[in-house]
User: What shape does this take?
Amino acid sequence: MDFILSEHVKDMLKERNIPEDWVWRVINNSDLQEMGSDENLHYYKSIDEFDNRILHVVVNANVIPKKIVTVFFDRRKGYKN
Assistant: This one.
């Protein structure tokens, strides 16, 4: 696997009740992927099981392996209907 979860992400998954497989779904099959001004890759995907809310996964691609640095439901991206 060329991605790892940061300790912060592991904590956030537990705290926010986000299944880890949703993170991998976002990375492997994103609806949108963009390079942020923070030089991290930002992946977005609508999660059907969570009222189509957009899960935002941020990845530091400048390290090997790539590190998933945070994950959250992004209200700024709205809902996909």
